[in-house]
Each structure stands twice: as C-alpha cells, then as structure tokens.
Amino acid sequence: MSNNDRRGFLAASAAGLGLVAIAPGIHLIQVSQARPAGEPASKLQRWGMLVDTTKCASGCNACVSACATENGINEKLDNPAQRSQWIRKIDLKDPKNGRQHSLPMMCQHCAEPPCVDVCPTGASMKRADGIVLVDRHICIGCRYCMMACPYKARSFVHQPLTEQNPEVPRGIGCVEACTFCVHRVDKGQKPACVEACPEGAMVFGDLEDPNSDISRRIAQTATTQVRADLKLNTGVRYQGI
C-alpha cells in the first residue's frame, strides 16, 4: 500500500459528521467543518496548536488525563516505564533568572518529521494537513522513530490492550503518539486536551488560515518552537518561554 493509499484509508475511516449533539439544541464546539467521508486531507490546511505557558499551572494534569480517557490509555499500569504517554507535563526553570514554566509536551507534528524519515516501512507518515500519524497495520515495532524524535514524544505498546476507543485503533507491538485527536478533528471538533484545559491555555486551529484564532495569536504574540535550531517547523508553538 502506497503512502497516498494509506492517507486515503485513514482519511476515510476517520471522517465523520460535522456537529455532534450532546443534548437537544446543544452541540460540541467545532474548529472547522467536518471533512466528508472519503475526502482526503488537504494541503490547504495545516493543523497546529498554541500553548500559553503563562496560563499552564504546574501540577495541573487535566490535558494528560483527558488525552488518556479519549484515546483509551491506561494511566494505572503497574510499570510506569511501559506506560504509553501521548502527552506529558514538564517543568522548566531558566537558570539565568529563575523563571519557571510548566508546559505540555507531545508530538510536535513537524513539517519535516524525523520519525517519518527513518521509518523503514512507511508506517510513520504525515498527512497532507500536517498531522503526523502511525499506521499500526504496517508498524513493525522497530522503534527507530522513537530514537529519531527529539521530543521523546512516542511510546511503544508493551501489553495487550482492553477497553479501547473504537475510533482510536491501537495495538501491542506498535509505536504510537499524539494524533491531535485526528478522529475528532475530522469531525470538526477540538482535541480532547484543548477542551479539557481549565485555563484555556491551549488553542487549536488552522495555521494556514490567517483569520483563524491561532494564526492571529501567533501573528500578534512572540511564540517559540521547541528545538527551533533543528528547523523541523513544528505544528506546536509555545507562548511565554
């Protein structure tokens, strides 16, 4: 199966309806129109995330818990070294001035993803709209992508999985990482972590749309790409660091 065929398959299986009713007259907040079933991702869009670290509190793990719940990740495995973690909180301290920051770290959805470059089977791939994914059907578990990722953002599934979200296929022996909740994005919804943040520190949207909230924020405020020196052009940007 070619890269284009895999992208088409993922696009068709992930697409859904535009508005999701949770009660009569009430719908989940949408970030875009839903992509019709069978329509491939478009390079006219590039999904991205902006995190305002000045609003991100140390010790708050709402985004981590929401990610685990949404994607069927067991946070209570006995061996923490074998626990899948698509998003984690890290605390930073500037040794020059003592300023401290707390921020979520996940797959940065690079425009030039090193994980894709080293994958021998093509399982690691980037959709036309910038979302980096792993096709578990052809992942052989070699973990080259884990070694190539400068953000330590990928996990290996060591144990059999239960109670999975049917919209988020996972499997033992495969590598996985943050997908920007692609199954939600393709319905026009926000990623689970963005909706769960109690301080509104996370903004998600189309980086190619100059009128999107995220593009306006990036144009008006100084933002940082983690390891910008690697010139990977990350889809995740941080404010305040």
Summarize the structure.
With 241 residues, the chain is α+β, with helices and mostly antiparallel strands. The chain has helices at residues 3-14, 62-71, 114-118, 144-148, 182-185, 192-196, 213-220, and strands at 21-23, 26-27, 47-52, 87-93, 100-106, 124-126, 132-134, 155-156, 175-176, 202-206, 223-224, 236-239.
Describe the structure.
The chain has 241 residues and is α+β, with helices and mostly antiparallel strands. The model is unreliable at 1-29 (pLDDT under 50). It is built from seven helices and twelve strands. A four-stranded mixed sheet has the order 10-3-12-11. A two-stranded antiparallel ribbon has the order 1-2. It has one domain: 2-Layer Sandwich (Alpha-Beta Plaits).
- Quick check: average pLDDT? 86
* SS summary, helix count: 7
The shape, in one word, is globular
CATH architecture: 2-Layer Sandwich
Summarize the biggest pleated sheet: 4 strands, mixed
Radius of gyration: 17 Å
Order of helices and strands: HEEEHEEHEEHEEHHEHEE
How many strand segments? Answer: 12
Uncertain regions: pLDDT < 50 for 5+ in a row? 1-29
The termini sit apart by: 42 Å
State which percent range the strand residues make up: 15-25%
The structure class reads alpha+beta
Task: Count the domains.
Answer: 1
CATH class bucket: Alpha Beta
Topology:
Blueprint: H1 3-14, E1 21-23, E2 26-27, E3 47-52, H2 62-71, E4 87-93, E5 100-106, H3 114-118, E6 124-126, E7 132-134, H4 144-148, E8 155-156, E9 175-176, H5 182-185, H6 192-196, E10 202-206, H7 213-220, E11 223-224, E12 236-239
Parallel strand pairs: 3-12
Antiparallel strand pairs: 1-2, 3-10, 4-5, 6-7, 8-9, 11-12
